[in-house]
Write a structure and sequence with these properties.
360 residues; alpha/beta; seven-stranded parallel beta sheet; globular; binds nicotinamide-adenine-dinucleotide; binds uridine-5'-diphosphate-4-deoxy-4-fluoro-alpha-D-galactose
Length: 360
């Protein structure tokens, strides 16, 4: 199948591109590299020994996007491209609505024009808002507590209306829980810019000595050890969920929603303890006040994906931490930074990373 992956250079996108290549799909990527580096795709290409046609295009550039899609002629799109930092979305709400919602509208219009109406969308457990009705089911009422979450909610609703308006669309809304871990090669992984917002990359940076101590946001929650509990899911399991959703859409029309989680949670202290053990490094931590907006506990009801897609998460916390640590240890500063000049020389449309990599 010809698959277009938007945001394919990013954390979840790069792992998914790799699995698509390994499964024999022909993969193209559209990314503006606002939160990623082309280096992730170079490494994907070197692991898979297959090419990825890469288009440096912003989804907000309607014309360039349409040109890319016309030349790719995809059978299906996996849509990761978006901004994802909750705090930043509170400070810059319009930027988030424009990038995520308008970007998705541009994509859907360009797909429609090109006759491609199959899309797998990166939604999030954030659409369950502050629900305390656990485990979180696909039918749990949705709400949003910040602009980022509201962009996901708006896009889900937009996709529902689109599917209702035209039965040719085939749509999967995948609600991710907390993606962590990295490819077992240690060559690709999450490369947060600046201070990580999320627990696992922060703990990894403390273990490797880049930061002094983890701040544990509250130990007075009604959980076993008082710290927040989340459903961490290995990024490779998550990527596999996208391939399963694509397979499903190949034979079923309409719109479908699946939670992608493990179905069980780990606490902040569980994560710190696992990191200390596996890295054999000390991970100092301080208990500080709760972070506003955090819920005590969040984990998925993961049965629907198992029944419909035959997919379930295979990897546990140990594996997540082991792979995350390997990536962090081998790449303490993330991917090498690409300079302005090199970035500007990536004049896209015909930029095939596979060829660049094999010329080296
Ligand atoms: P990421 O930032 O690593 O990847 C997103 C990619 O999209 C980046 O490569 C970025 O450069 C690109 N991008 C952003 N705006 C773009 C635009 N206008 N045009 C073209 N490219 C653009 O993030 P990720 O962690 O891989 O997340 C992927 C998707 O999954 C996002 O939509 C995110 O909201 C969603 N999600 C992530 C998490 C998580 O915790 N990582 C949880 C739930 C949902
Ligand atoms: N935490 C700390 N210290 C930190 C960071 C986090 O104690 O430095 C705690 C949080 O309070 C929470 C847990 O670690 O209990 C996990 O926090 P994350 O920030 O890693 O993840 P969240 O569940 O808060 O949110 C993430 C994404 C959201 C997304 C949600 C569900 O940031 O965008 O997962 O997918 F909506």
């Amino acid at each position: 199948m010809r698959v277009l992956v938007t945001g394919g250079a990013g954390y979840i996108g790069s792992h998914t591109v790799l699995q698509l290549l390994e499964a024999g799909h022909q993969v193209s990527v559209v990314d503006n590299f606002i939160n990623s580096s082309p280096e992730s795709l170079r490494r994907v290409v070197s692991i898979a020994s297959k090419k990825v046609a890469t288009f440096r295009v912003d989804l907000l550039d309607r014309k360039a996007l349409a040109e890319a899609i016309t030349s790719i002629q995809p059978d299906a799109v996996i849509h990761f491209a978006g901004l994802k930092a909750v705090g930043e979305s509170v400070a810059q709400p319009l930027r988030y609505y424009k990038n995520n919602v308008t970007g998705t509208i541009n994509l859907l219009e360009a797909m429609d024009e090109a006759g491609c109406r199959t899309i797998v969308f990166s939604s999030s457990a954030t659409v369950y808002g502050e629900s305390v009705d656990l485990p979180l089911r696909e039918t749990t009422p949705r709400s949003a507590t910040n602009p980022y979450g509201r962009t996901k909610l708006h896009i889900e609703e937009m996709l529902e209306e689109l599917a209702a308006s035209d039965s040719r669309w085939r749509i999967a809304n995948l609600r991710y829980f907390n993606p962590v871990g990295a490819h077992e090669s240690g060559l690709i992984g999450e490369d947060p810019q600046g201070i990580p917002n999320n627990l696992m990359p922060f703990v990894a940076q403390v273990a490797v000595g880049k930061r002094d101590a983890v701040q544990v946001f509250g130990n007075d929650y009604p959980t076993a050890d008082g710290t927040g509990v989340r459903d961490y899911i290995h990024v490779l399991d998550l990527a596999a969920g996208h391939l399963a959703a694509l397979d499903y859409l190949a034979s079923s029309g309409g719109l479908h929603v699946w939670n992608l989680g493990t179905g069980s949670g780990s606490s902040v202290l569980d994560v710190i303890e696992a990191f200390q053990r596996i890295s054999a490094r000390l991970v100092p931590y301080d208990i500080v006040a709760r972070r506003p907006g955090d819920v005590a506990e969040s984990y998925a009801h993961a049965e629907k994906a198992r029944l419909d897609l035959g997919w379930k998460a295979e990897r546990g916390l140990e594996q997540m931490v082991e792979d995350m640590w390997r990536w962090q240890f081998k790449n303490p500063d993330g991917f090498p930074k690409v300079g302005h000049e090199e970035m500007n020389s990536l004049e896209l449309r015909d930029f095939v990373l596979g060829e660049v990599a094999s010329n080296k």
